[in-house]
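Good morning,

Attaching, inline, the backbone tokens for the sequence recovery test we're adding to the shared suite. The designed sequence is right after.
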């Protein structure tokens, strides 16, 4: 093959005029993959020696694989599962707001510290969507974060104002999900 036809990229040149900054990223939508993609980003950041924090707002029935795996990066990855007590359909609104508030205080510490280069707030969009947390308060805090810090917010129903101020928004679309065929959630894939 004529070498002039080989257009495969080998190296990315530094692009002048583009600045590095801590990004605000949102993974939302109905399709599967939001938390998994966030965990993938955590792994990538850990590989570069970054310090990472993950707050999981909603606690499921099972201990997730990502919680177990990321806790192996002790000292480099801090995992907080703070959704305990969310009751959703049971009408325990006051308790849910209180749980969200406590979790949010922890998030504020992580968003303002000089320590974690990547902070993941997993399922926070749902919590805002349920009105357990105020979107404007979250946005205010994000605007004040240290400039180097990357923040990733996941969950269905991300508020428009958050998507407007974010640097990156990905909406997962559900084309098919095994749940629709009656196949239950499986370890290693779903949790
Ligand atoms: P994952 O954690 O697998 O990346 P997610 O974070 O995008 O999924 P959530 O809305 O947080 O999705 O829901 C988490 C759980 O719900 C997972 O077990 C996932 O398989 C399941 N799930 C996600 N999307 C769908 C869907 N469209 N239909 C049915 N179940 C879904
Ligand atoms: Mg999720």
């Amino acid at each position: 093959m004529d070498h002039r036809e080989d257009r495969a990229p080998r190296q990315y040149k530094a692009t002048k005029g583009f600045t590095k900054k801590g990004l605000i990223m949102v993974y939302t939508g109905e399709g599967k993959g939001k938390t998994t993609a966030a965990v993938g980003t955590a792994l990538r950041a850990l590989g570069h020696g970054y310090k990472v924090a993950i707050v999981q707002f909603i606690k499921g029935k099972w201990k997730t694989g990502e919680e177990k795996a990321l806790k192996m990066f002790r000292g480099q990855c801090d995992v907080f599962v703070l959704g305990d007590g969310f009751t959703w359909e049971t009408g325990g609104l006051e308790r849910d707001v209180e749980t969200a508030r406590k979790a949010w205080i922890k998030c504020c510490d992580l968003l303002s510290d000089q320590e974690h280069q990547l902070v993941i707030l997993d399922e926070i969009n749902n919590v805002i969507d349920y009105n357990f947390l105020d979107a404007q308060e979250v946005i205010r805090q994000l605007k004040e974060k240290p400039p180097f810090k990357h923040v990733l917010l996941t969950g269905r129903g991300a508020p428009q104002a958050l998507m407007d101020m974010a640097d990156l928004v990905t909406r997962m679309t559900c084309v098919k999900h095994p749940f629709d065929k009656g196949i239950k959630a499986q370890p290693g894939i779903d949790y």
